[in-house]
Design brief:
By secondary structure, the chain is α/β, with parallel strands linked by helices. It has a single domain (6-84), classed as D-Maltodextrin-Binding Protein, domain 2 (3-Layer(aba) Sandwich). It contains three helices and five strands; from the N terminus they run βαβαβαββ. It has helices at residues 16-22, 33-40, 52-60; strands at 6-10, 28-30, 46-51, 68-75, 78-84. The chain has a five-stranded mixed β-sheet with strand order 2-1-3-5-4.
């Protein structure tokens, strides 16, 4: 990520601790599919932490949004994906 890039979280994550660790304030809290679709259609580069299951669902829906997988990691009992629109 570069300075000025935006970070969002989708899928029930607690945002507070991530503000501390990343230094990015605010981290956007995305709650609905419509919000994530609008976010990824943005002209600005955005990143989003999302549960892998949600990423796979969005990818397979044919929403015609730019959705690129950057990284995927196991965090405790869930798999998290970092995705971007560019």
């Amino acid at each position: 990520m570069k300075p000025g890039d935006k970070l969002a979280m989708y899928g029930g994550f607690a945002i507070g601790p991530h503000n501390l660790y990343t230094g990015i304030v605010p981290i956007m809290d995305i709650e609905t599919e419509d919000e994530i679709v609008n976010l990824f259609r943005s002209k600005e580069r955005v990143f989003c932490l999302i549960q892998n299951q949600e990423y796979e669902t969005l990818k397979n829906k044919g929403l015609k949004i730019p959705l690129y997988l950057i990284a995927r990691r196991q965090l405790g009992c869930i798999v998290v994906a970092l995705v971007s629109n560019k």
